[in-house]
Amino acid sequence: MRSPTAAAVARHPHLALPRSAPDALRVDCHVHTMWSGDSTTRPDELALAIEEAGIDAVCITDHSTVSGAQRLQAELDCLVVVGQEQRTPEGEVIGLFLVEPIPAGCRSASEAVRAVRSQGGLVYIPHPTDPMRHRLAAGVIERLAGEGLIDIVEVRNAKTSSESLNDEAGAACARVGATAGGGSDAHVPEAIGAVYAEMAPFDGPGGFLRRLGEGRVVGHHFDPPRLWDARVVPSVRSLGRTPPA
């Protein structure tokens, strides 16, 4: 298991907590990279941040693409779950364990989550109660859950500033009978590990869902201002993905 550095613990004190079991994995379920278009985190920065935080696995959930996640799955020295966060007219949804992108232009959340399910992926609902985010309305979540189309609801998101909103997300998760998940929603390297799910080792989407349900979500709010910085980021166009308009 990885151990966090002192610098990472200073940012995220919970990283110093003992693991619930010797083989427990710390999985950040919601991470963005430079392929997202609204993040400039390069692969080398992501690799270093994961190592410093002592995170064992990440779900890379870039906006509108799986290109970065698929590339990094072969490059990062940790477990990588290929995911994608996709905006729909009804709100954002995340697919995990994807083999191909969620199609652009989905006309509804239902269309997006069915695209996830059609390839054997898991449906993860991010930041369901945060009014500052492009979230799914409670009625949409309940409708999708009633159709058996939701696997995981994010009960803690590090970019959600109010603890009461995370509490409401936990209540919504319980109400629809979904599995609780959580992630940093990192758009900068320093955010990696701000929230993680601690769970037993898993194999594939079914094992992930089962172990996540047996685990726990740990973390805190961490969303520092992203100051302008003159820096060089490789062109994702040359890496197989055009940033969103």
Overall description:
It is a single chain. The protein has a 9-stranded mixed sheet with strand order 7-6-5-4-3-2-1-8-9, sandwiched between helices. It is globular, with a radius of gyration of 16 Å. It is built from 7 helices and 9 strands, in the order H-E-H-E-H-E-E-H-E-H-E-H-E-E-H-E. It is an alpha/beta fold. The N and C termini lie far apart (40 Å). It has a single domain, classed as Alpha-Beta Barrel (TIM Barrel).
Short description:
The chain is α/β, with parallel strands linked by helices and 245 residues long. It has helices at residues 6-11, 43-53, 67-75, 109-118, 138-146, 163-176, 204-214; strands spanning 25-31, 57-60, 79-88, 91-96, 122-125, 152-157, 179-183, 195-199, 216-219. The chain has a nine-stranded mixed β-sheet, with helices on both faces.
Fraction of residues in helices? Answer: 25-40%
Average pLDDT: 94
CATH architecture group name = Alpha-Beta Barrel
Low-confidence stretches: none
| DSSP strand content | 15-25%
Q: Biggest sheet, open or closed, and with what strands and sense?
A: 9 strands, mixed
The secondary structure category is: alpha/beta
| Largest sheet, spatial ordering of strands | 7-6-5-4-3-2-1-8-9
Order of helices and strands: HEHEHEEHEHEHEEHE
Shape: globular
What is CATH's topology name? TIM Barrel
Number of domains: 1
Number of helices: 7
User: What is the CATH superfamily?
Assistant: Metal-dependent hydrolases
Number of strands: 9
Question: What is the terminal-to-terminal distance?
Answer: 40 Å
Radius of gyration: 16 Å
The CATH class, by name, is: Alpha Beta
